[in-house]
Amino acid sequence: MGLVVGIVLIVVGLVVLGWFGYQYIGTTIVSQQGYSHTTTQLEQSWSGGGAASTTGSGDVRADGSVVRIPGAALGIMRVPAFGESWAVPVLDGTDQTTLAKGLGWYENTNGPGQVGNFAVAGHVVTHGQPFRRLQELKPGATIEVETREAVYTYVMDSSATVKDTDTWVLDPVPGHPGEKATDKLITLTTCADLFRSPDRYIVFGHLVSTRAK
Hints:
- The active site is at 123 (proton donor/acceptor), 191 (acyl-thioester intermediate).
- By secondary structure, the protein is an alpha+beta fold.
- 23% of the residues lie in helices and 31% in strands.
- It has a single domain, classed as Sortase, Chain: A, CATH 2.40.260.
């Protein structure tokens, strides 16, 4: 009986290790491959050289208005400080299915390049871990968001660690509820720790340039 129990415990341990391995390594490999596929599809679609994403493609028009399609990719984010190869699609929504495919654009926040707050979420671990190095960014770092019509360049202003209930970071003017926005802002959010935590790490920035394509 003791031998049987020992074997069962070993098998259970291996299953648990395998599950954790997939969650923290396997999902990242799969998601990063998906990032590359989606960004390539977007670039080809924008250039007229290929079809739009099979999940549908959101669009940011020349006047800054946005066509929102839940789960659809609408842009590509690049952060030079993370290296030339770092390019992650930005998709509409922040549900877990969407965040497994890239960065998620919060509902009820403004679009890229618009007056107000363009707020984006991303995983710090698992599913491509796009914001794994977010806490390394320093004020002055640039954040680029490319859409069909333009490339928007933001500069990081500051960072903060808040609770997951501190939704003021998503306000049109973060920390000033009810105030009418006059600036074009960006807010990036992720978990503050590598494992589940009630804390969120936040990066705030503002738009410094827009380059039409």
